[in-house]
Amino acid sequence: MTVITALFWCSLFLVCYSYVGYGILLYIVIKLRRFFVKPRHTGDEPPFTPEVTLMVAAYNEEAFIRKKIANTLSLNYPAEKVQIIFVTDGSSDDTNNIIRSYPRITLLYEPERRGKTMAVNRAMKFVKTPFVVFSDANTLLNKDVLICLMRHFRDEHTGAVAGEKKIIVAEQAEAEGAGEGMYWKYESLLKKWDAELYSVMGAAGELFAIRTSLYEDIPADTILDDFMISFGINKKGYSVAYAPDAYAQETPSASLEDEYKRKVRIAAGGFQSMSRLMDLLNIFRYPKITWQYVSHRVFRWTVAPLCLLLTLLTNIIVCASGAPFIYWLILLMQVAFYGMALVGYALARKQVKSKVFYIPFYFVFMNVAVYQGFGRFLRKKQSAVWDRSQRQLTTG
Q1: Family assignment (predicted)?
Q2: Residue 210: is its pLDDT beyond 80?
């Protein structure tokens, strides 16, 4: 029973550390660091406007592509310094014809659909500028996004800049939409602190920028191309900065099924990425990044989901053996939490939003997806050719 008790406390500690403890410890470290290193305020300097390429990978986006193009052409940046590339390999709807009607945009198209990774690898060979900004086709960018991203490249040690992802959640949004928005708010806070300490732990594909000279083709079967590109830059000795004032907006997934499909794909891609980034676990080789990488990514994708299950099972076993009151209290809290998640799931199925229940629901929802994603990774069942998730429609 001593072993079971120890396993319970270890599992509980790792769950708390992965989701809350790392953030608290990171904040404390940053506070201490500020006593010795004065933070740099990039907003105090004049605009840095080098030549830049805005690259958008799109697949069958005829319903949204005009909005994306209008948004792209309206960005506040010298037009003569912006190269715009849309790569649409495999698209079979009217996306290409729409793009062709805009002379400022370079359209790259091949009829064979081989996935986003291969499309980006091919498109990068057409880039003629020192910097590239990647943006998803189903997102809208703020007017000053390029200015906000580029200013960070004044620092020669910055190899990439991660923008902010914002989920547009209407007042009447469904539970999964509110959950997704809350999750990204927390992730944004961690990104801010990660970047202040050293580097963002993986840029989101919705919006990030890199130095063109640091790009290397990634394997065709890569599921999370944004993750691998940003960590490839870290491995070259460069940091990934964070620009919260540069953001991409998108609506939540249209349904639970679409959001779950997306989470499973991300989880499978996470395991694939970790298997290819094993050398980042060597703190002697990468002393600046290993702790952040393990705490924010490895634990979140591997240890935490497993420990959630272990914490519940070992808690039940200990209580069944006549445990002190504290174990019963923790078990009651776990049962209540999962009960709230179940209620949140039932409400979400009925498209009812509840601020009380959607957070535990979305938390469990994400971790269940990790298990299926791990299964797909082991069986090599997750294709790098992604199926676009449906998003809720916006007005206007």
Answers
A1: Belongs to the glycosyltransferase 2 family.
A2: yes
